[in-house]
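Here is one chain, start to finish.
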Amino acid sequence: MTALAPTLEAFLTERLVAQRGSSPNTIASYRDTFCLLLRFAAEQTGKQPFELDFSDLDAALVGAFLEHLETARGNSVRTRNNRLSAVHSLFAYAALRHPEHAGTVQRVLAIPMKLFDRKMVSYLSDDEVDALLATCDLGTWAGRRDQALLDLAVEAGLRISELAALRCSDVTLGRGAHLQLTGKGRKERAVPLGKAVARLLRAWLPETGGSPGGPLFPTTAGGHMSRDAIEHRLALHAERAAAHCPSLQRKRVTAHSLRHTCAMRLRAKGVPLEVIALILGHEDIATTYAFYLHADLQAAEQAISLVAPPKTKPGRYRAPDPLLRFLEGL
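Its structure:
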């Protein structure tokens, strides 16, 4: 047996689970990365995955794998960098266990993260949110479930993993209605619920058909909805809503854009960014400032209006020379 297989097994079980206590989401992300990498390497080398060694996963092959993620699989640069981070973690772990592969390990560790453009956050207006929710067919069980899910996503700004993991027992209604959940980085937080979404959840809970420990938004089979299933339902409703709300045709509506929508709605109502950070579960408030203060065009316009030069007259440059004027007019 090669050194790769037992090292990878030890990395996933001993390092991630026993030593670091990584979350199930982290372990699943690493697992998916190595499944993709080993399948790609097997196609490139003609070997079975269990026959591969660290010498087969050299910098050239890992680089080709990263290129494959972007071109063939259509992954974003962020996803590419996340996959590379998992590979780096494995090779850093292997460096102390297999010094005979030190050269290969160091060359793979030297592969840099790829820079990418940081776009402004995409969020929905109130009219677009109303159009999206209006597509839920309240005459069906699935439609009522989707309405409760989408409304909660907009009102509470939950991550898609948090939506998928919600249980009925996580909801507290009545005075001080809130959600109790464990978010990214295993951080627990309580998210307050407004009166409208609390009424909606109160009407929905009897339809879940499960125990208090059952999923808040179950599938027809009674299990938790996967993240892919949530995104699929959201894309379906967004496509229907775009037919009546043309502005949605120019936007990519995802669960994360609903999270941004929640933050921007709170920002528009004057909620301090520190409070928004607590609601969204941001560990570093700098993340909140970077995303939502930058996207607040109204605040930027107000700031610019304070320093606009008075009595400024519009003007246009005119070339004094007739030949230059002719050339610039072409």
